[in-house]
């Protein structure tokens, strides 16, 4: 089993009689799905224009509260956004400290004291394993560094700071199937997301491509006529016969060789 160490990300517990209803109005995912199953689901927190502010993961905590996990360096901003519309609701958002997140791909022995959820974080089925940060768990096979980046790119997994940036629409990053429920009702930014769904058109979309060795993240992609077709967002650190796997945003209607 390959293990990925996610460190100690931002983690919040949402409690109270209105907790599920309130958070359901803040995220694109149907939170009710995680409360009855051993499941972690991803979703987006949007602004009123339907653009991504944060990507989060949600699960049922061991005390039956709703856990919300986000990027560690965005903890303060995420907490402020989650509390922004909390006025008369019976819900409380509490930051949780001291948990480390491991993600395991394939089956393996898991410590008895772990809190475990099924999750597909890296493009394949896996398990989120939460343990106290001071736990001695030390798996033998770690997927990290350049190998993890290559694995991520090959599986077309967008990450914050590369493919995911404030202002992007979820559908542009290929998150429609994994992060959005179109049946749960209203949430902040929902009208825009539904309009994009009905129109069936987005201005750009994330694609997997191969590029020559000297291409870097941020480089433009060109159409046969020389006009800009899109931009490279991530490039694998590993070269194979002079080419590398990459992720890129391509404009609607553009032609890109490869």
Account of the 3D structure:
The chain is of the alpha+beta class and 258 residues long. The protein is built from six helices and 13 strands. The protein has helices at 19-24, 32-35, 75-83, 145-154, 176-179, 190-199, and strands spanning 2-5, 10-15, 41-46, 52-60, 66-70, 92-95, 99-105, 115-119, 126-132, 204-212, 220-222, 228-235, 243-251. A hairpin with a 5-residue loop joins strand 4 (52-60) and strand 5. The longest helix is centred in the middle third of the chain and has 10 residues, at 145-154. The protein is globular, with a radius of gyration of 19 Å.
Write the layout of secondary structure elements.
Blueprint: E1 2-5, E2 10-15, H1 19-24, H2 32-35, E3 41-46, E4 52-60, E5 66-70, H3 75-83, E6 92-95, E7 99-105, E8 115-119, E9 126-132, H4 145-154, H5 176-179, H6 190-199, E10 204-212, E11 220-222, E12 228-235, E13 243-251
Antiparallel strand pairs: 1-7, 2-5, 2-6, 3-4, 4-5, 7-9, 8-9, 10-13, 11-12, 12-13
């Amino acid at each position: 089993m390959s293990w990925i160490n996610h460190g100690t990300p931002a983690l919040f517990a949402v409690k109270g009689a209105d907790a599920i209803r309130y958070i359901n109005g803040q995220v694109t995912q149907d939170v009710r799905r995680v409360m009855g199953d051993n499941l972690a689901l991803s979703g987006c927190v949007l602004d009123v224009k339907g653009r991504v502010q944060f990507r989060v993961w949600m699960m049922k905590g061991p005390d039956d509260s709703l856990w919300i996990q986000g990027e560690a360096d965005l903890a303060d901003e995420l907490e402020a956004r989650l509390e922004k519309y909390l006025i008369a609701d019976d819900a409380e958002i509490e930051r949780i400290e001291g948990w480390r997140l491991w993600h395991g791909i394939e089956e393996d022995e898991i410590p008895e004291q772990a809190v475990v959820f099924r999750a597909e974080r890296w493009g394949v089925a896996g398990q989120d394993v939460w343990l106290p940060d001071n736990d001695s768990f030390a798996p033998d096979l770690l997927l990290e560094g350049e190998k993890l980046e290559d694995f991520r790119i090959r599986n077309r997994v967008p990450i914050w700071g590369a493919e995911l940036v404030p202002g992007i629409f979820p559908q542009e990053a290929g998150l429609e199937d994994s992060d959005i429920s179109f049946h749960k009702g209203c949430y902040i930014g929902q009208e825009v997301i539904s309009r994009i769904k009905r129109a069936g058109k987005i201005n750009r979309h994330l694609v997997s491509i191969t590029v020559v060795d000297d291409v870097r993240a941020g480089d433009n992609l060109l159409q046969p006529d020389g006009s800009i077709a899109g931009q490279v967002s991530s490039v694998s650190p590993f070269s194979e016969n002079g080419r590398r796997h990459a992720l890129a945003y391509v404009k609607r209607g553009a032609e890109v060789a490869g």
